[in-house]
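User: I'm putting together a small comparison set for a docking exercise, and I want a reference complex before I start. The sequence is below, and the ligand is S-adenosyl-L-homocysteine. Could you produce the 3D structure with the ligand included, as structure tokens?
Assistant: Of course. I'll restate your input first, then give the structure tokens for the complex.
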Amino acid sequence: MTIQNPTGKVYLVGAGPGDPDLLTVRALKLIQSATVTLYDNLVSPAVVELIPASVQRIYVGKERGNHTLPQEEINHLLVRLAREGHQVLRLKGGDPFIFGRGGEEIETLAASGIAFEVVPGITAASGVAAYAGIPLTHRDHAQSCVFVTGHLKNHTMDLDWESLARPHQTVVVYMGLQGLGALCSNLIRHGLPAHTPAAIVQQGTRPQQHVVIGTLQNLPERALAAKLQAPTLIIVGGVVTLHQVLHWFNPRPPA
Ligand code: SAH
């Protein structure tokens, strides 16, 4: 039987969408006090820079189609490090419980009797919408807001299209760039007008933020022309029209 060091613990921490000023106070304290930190490609370089040089950093990858470490191995690595007595910081982009597999990671910890704590982060929908000047709800445009994953499985997007194609609702799509064309045509086919406003935001809250505005009809073509780089977030609904007057974050394009 493994004898557990009672002091080891895993902190599953949301790192927000990129701007380090959007970290929670708790996240910043843990970044400064952990003894080992695991992070993936969604954690912005500006946040990674805050990890003290003396702390061991483990990059666990996860670009689309390029998982440096399979999820299973990440889960077991967390267990092993905690058993060695580490204060393990598992940094995840946005909020760990929103499309982040955070649940899977702590399920393994719970099953192994490892102490853990979860620190919420600002999810991409909130952070990106704020910095793009697109309120997710607004009395004139949307009384509800749904978050969905546009991740393609076997080249298709298996979503409940009827529930998404409703009026007065904002739809936020994570991981949707590859399937943008299918997303827009399915929403039109299920009843949303082709002129419904839609936006795609590249690297929201970061110096590389780029907002492309269009409609369900023309967004795929505009996104292609803009040569967007991941991560990108799609926002569909009447609220997108507000960007024109409410945009305030205009980072200078990188040199
Ligand atoms: N747990 C994360 C989401 C992980 S899924 C969260 O709560 O935000 C990864 C997807 O999040 C990306 O494909 C993209 O759609 C979105 N995303 C994360 N950060 C983003 C950013 N800075 N700008 C645009 N999209 C972002």
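Strands lie at 9-14, 36-39, 56-59, 87-92, 115-119, 144-149, 169-174, 197-202, 210-215, 232-236. Residues 125-246 form a domain with the Methyltransferase, Cobalt-precorrin-4 Transmethylase; Domain 2 fold (CATH 3.30.950.10).
User: Thanks, that's exactly what I needed.
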